[in-house]
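Researcher: Excuse me, tokens okay?
***
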Amino acid sequence: MSGNTDEEENKHRCEEERNLRAELKEVWQEESPATAKVTDRAEEVDGKIKLRCEEERNLRAELEEVWQEESPTTAKVTDLADEVDGQLGTRSCSEDAED
């Protein structure tokens, strides 16, 4: 049940962040049209990064399926590594892209 609560809390935080970004964007548009253009471009790039992260997660899932078919031991190691990464928060998409 706590996972569900965490997910709801995360969604709420994301919604709050979107609202604050929208409010900030309005202020910037009033103050500086150039700043508004930069903000729009930053949001576009951020959206592309999120899309790539989703694609990466899908590819990792496919790769894990192949590994599970090939080697149950490899699958167990992969599951453990994913669990540890999740608990430690040691791998983000941007960090993986740098490697």
